[in-house]
């Protein structure tokens, strides 16, 4: 695997973009790996936009995302900056901490293992 070093001025924060922190990605990718192992998810995409960051989860690459894990820092003081959004655009869970918000998706993992 080739690693590319970017100059400090070209990182996501240089252009005023919002990104997931390394610790946030570790939590998300841990859940993602378990769901892939259960055969539920197959692909993901990450978007770093000006006001928010999105981790999109796909069953198949060419489909619309099943779920979106979104980080909206401007909502930190209100209803919480993390949210899980369903395929239909409905917010399934929102909160101030990432792990409790992701529990809505972990319930789906329990069902996948049982069924």
Topology:
Blueprint: H1 22-37, E1 43-48, E2 53-58, E3 67-71, E4 82-86, E5 91-95, H2 98-114
Antiparallel strand pairs: 1-2, 2-3, 3-4, 4-5
Helix pairs in contact: 1-2
Shape: globular
Q: How many H/I helices?
A: 2
State the secondary-structure class. alpha+beta
Largest sheet: 5 strands, antiparallel
**Quaternary arrangement of the chains shown?**
single chain
Strand order of the largest sheet: 1-2-3-4-5
Structural notes for this entry:
The protein is of the alpha+beta class and 115 residues long. The chain has one domain. The protein is 29% helix and 23% strand. It has a five-stranded antiparallel beta sheet with strand order 1-2-3-4-5. α1 runs parallel beside α2. It starts with 21 loop residues before the first helix and ends with a helix. The N terminus is likely disordered.
Condensed summary:
By secondary structure, the protein is α+β, with helices and mostly antiparallel strands. The chain is built from two helices and five strands. The protein has one domain (17-114).
